[in-house]
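USER:
Working in pairs, take the chain set out below, taking as long as you need, and write a paragraph about the fold.
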Amino acid sequence: MTISKNYGTALAQNQRVDFNQWCREETHRLEMIGFHADAAVDFSGAAPTPPGRGRLGIGMECLDRDLWEYRPALPGLIELGIRFARLQSGWAKTEKTPGVYDFVWLDEQVDALLAAGVEPWLSLSYGNPLYVEGAQERRADGLAHNPLHSPRGLRGWCAYVQAAVEHFRDRIHCFEIWNEPDVSIFFPTAGGEGDWCRQYYDLVRHTVPIIRETAPAAQIVVVTGGGTGANARGCARLLELGIGALADVYAFHAYSYTPERFDALSRNAFYNLFRRRAPGMKIWRGEAGIASYHDEGTQEALCDYPVNETIQLRWIGRHLIRDLGDPVLGLTSCFHLSDFLHFSGSCHYYFGMLRGGDCSRKPAFYLLQFLKRFLDDGAAVPDSSFYMECGDVTRWTHRLPESLLFDVEVVPFRRNDAPVFAYWHRTSVRKEMAPAQVWENSFTGVSDGRWLQPVVVDPCTRNVYSLSLREGEERLRIPLLNRPLLLMEAEALEPYLRLAPPVQGRMLRAEAVQADHE
């Protein structure tokens, strides 16, 4: 299998970003408003994160349909240091003769992940054409084959689940039942008009006892393609049916045009469903991401949203930091490790942190790597006991629009017992925002409220900007972009990190357009 067919359209249109060049340009943009880097975060001398820590996962789906090659991507996966990876089991690929299961292909993937220090969790899916009856279209990959459509199909599914769980129970400790049953291509209801909630609940009801008996210590995950907003209705219906008493984890997939769409109000309403209906159930975000390019005619998630590699960078940073700052989420998984073919074979998916073909690193890869080491290593925890907001210094400098001052997202963490504020402007990720200078108004829990050795860290360029009060001012001036920056005490960088020279190089002034407020 190769990803080279038609791949390269994006490259021919100059969609690749030279990351080193981009970092130099970003450094210069902050210099132009008075911020000069004096050091940079360097992880090369840091001790590795102890195993079993962290909540970040990465998607490695679609290997069951041979849509990408994982071996060239393994070095990148190891560099990321991600704790979890989601695989799909591929019933149709495993059982090509009734009752005969060949797990060799999946053994190789699972063993490769374990050797890399990554914990696999396995989505048991999809259907199998061996068990499709009547006039229903038989797809070789089993997609769109619902085993509930016939008693024989259900018996085949149950036998497969038992074989798969028994085979992997010593290596995999988390099994998910199906994928996105609320999406008709994955889980068509009988005759195209059934109650997907009821049918998925029935599938779970038949599957859970097999997993419990075969691997009693394993976690069982149920999943929907949506969970928030209008799709929360499906989640509520499943909880009413009693799915919370069957499974341990509910994993939702959510692809939003703006990462902040799943805001405090919708999160609280969503989580309240579980407090009322399934208080012991864990909540994961099983998938979320954005592409860096769209093939013409693609029907993927957010396919009508203009994208490129820097838009992907901004989206991924804002989305993951908000999830890492949410103590309710037990896991958040980024879709996807690598670009790959669409399941229809007609388009490519460019959701990867690695580019297809050569597995070169996109800018979002380096940001994800930073977030893993700095905010997801067990030394950083969400902390809502303090806050930070931004105020106006425009009367001295810039003449900023009012919307710039009142729409700043702040996510507080504590690292090494020191405050860390991730912050950005909620302007659309679709446009690059001109850097602005604002002042911080923070409460850090310290009695005198003073910063001791404040710095701003750019998690994308990894530059460190030392800050100090200007004469006659009581607040720090800090830079503001529509991608995340981190305001913190310098001690939050220790002891795992050492400082290196910052990104250098004078660039031609980049024209940045102030993005519209979204």
